[in-house]
Amino acid sequence: MRQAAPSAGAAGAADGGVAGVTGVARPVLEARGLTKRYGQVTALQGTDFELREGEILAVIGDNGAGKSSLIKALSGAIIPDEGEMFLDGAPVRFRSPLDARRQGIETVYQDLAVAPAMTIAENLFLGREMLRAGRLGRWLRLIDKRRMLAEAQSHMANLKIGLRSLSQPVETLSGGQRQGVAVARSAAFARHVVIMDEPTAALGVKEGNMVLELIRKVRERGLPVIIISHNMPHVFEIADRIHIQRLGRRAAVVDPKRIGMSDAVAVMTGAMQPEQLPAECLA
Q: In the CATH hierarchy, which top-level class contains the domain 8-110+195-281?
């Protein structure tokens, strides 16, 4: 199995530095002019997007801002009517989530998409089960559960997720632990990007903080992360940059270390125009 190895640029960005002669980390995933219409409703109106190497990028927006449609386009769940996308500078076009997964983009959805009755190890390899060597795997399609368990233990250890047994059913876990399983699965197979939809929704303070720490560990492994969240304190705690989506467009990209939460919300809701922000707040 291929695992993400931190590049020099990613490591530098994760440490608070950035790559390149210009001092800006190179884009990993880009979108230009994405447009998506549903009949008379336009969800995306020529929106742009940029995820840089080694960063955690938060996407925020009011209801109807188009953030869900944007993320679905980036993850292959919908096909934009117009616009273009680039992965590591090369043009890409996803016709399904499977296409995005083949390109190393993994998504953790809000409902987690885990099978409660299956074990933790089985969930980590759900849809990508390892087959036994030789004829047993090639002809009889027998699953190599021992190897899957060993690999699962390695992935969970890398992210420092402590669980009693990886052979226990997922339905026995708490909400935060289930989120940890979903995050570990995405980190195990992602080669380019991890997308997380409301990763701390419906979690308590302790479990929410645990998930935030998991997100940092994913970034430390060299994978840039996109998070979609309504939890503004969590966004400002973990994000390197914040993409503000409004009325189907990218309103602004801001630096959470240089802008107040109230100003970010004001731009998000339209109470403040992006042009009113000081230049140092933009990222």
A: alpha beta
